[in-house]
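Message: I would value a second opinion on how I read folds in token form. Give me a protein, with the fold worked out from its sequence. Write it directly below this note and I will take it from there.
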Amino acid sequence: MTLAQRAARIVPATWLRVSILVALATIALKTAAWWLTGSVGLLSDAMESGVNLASAAFGLAMVRLAALPPDPEHPYGHHKAEYFASAFEGLAIVAAALAIGWAAVDRILHPQPIGQVGAGLALSVVASALNGALAWAMLHSARAHRSMALEGDARHLLTDVWTSAGVVLGIGLVAATGWGWVDPLVALGVAANILREGFQLARRSANGLMDKRVDRATLAAIEEVLAGFAHPAIRFDHVVTRRSGTRRFVDLHMHMPADWTLRRAAALRISVEQALMGAVPGLRATIQLLPQDVEAHVDDPRDPL
């Protein structure tokens, strides 16, 4: 079994607990790097790690909530809770970007020298290596478990890695040239980069809350299953899909001969449902049975959409 396969088998909640521990470690390393150097670029890097910690903690709470079984108040489950974790992370990133930008502008107006560059950069590189390894493992698990909260945290960690690389490059340039203005300029670049990531996370969360259709690969798998059951006497239409956290749903109409018995029609429907759920893990299928010569009008003409 490869490392990627082993990472994918670990559940999101476990990875988020690891993310909390790694965030604490990277905060300590990057704060020490900033304290040694006085670099506002490294300060911005440490502040972003603080966002990682808050996001991982909130994400863990939402993953636990999403795992709760359906109840009378939530008969379809709590799967959408993960989208709130991603939205929270997006907003936290935006707040961090604004704080970093403020610190960078202040450093431009009040320049200060950078000291102990070697030790500070070494600590930053170690922290980035931790984040990079964790992000790689979390992305494999997020894809396997279809976890929006875990994917959001992993992508933020990857952004953090690239941010740290930019900071290291900037501080190295300052040390080599003596151009102190490069340090706050790099911090402004960090702020712009994570601001973009924050907006992207918020947008993905909004799409999930608005019942976006399933991805193309999943839709292709559904269509392949239905094509396998297609017959001159059997046809499918009004196929509609949506995503809700780790769950995926498909609703459709199945037309068959009007003279079939209910038992025969129900047996075929069960076969189609089982084939769909076997082809797409986590899928829930709802199939409405209709005679071959009957068309269902599901659109309300009063609905402007």
User: Anything to note?
Assistant: The chain has nine helices and three strands. The beta strands are 235-244, 247-256, 283-291. The radius of gyration is 25 Å.
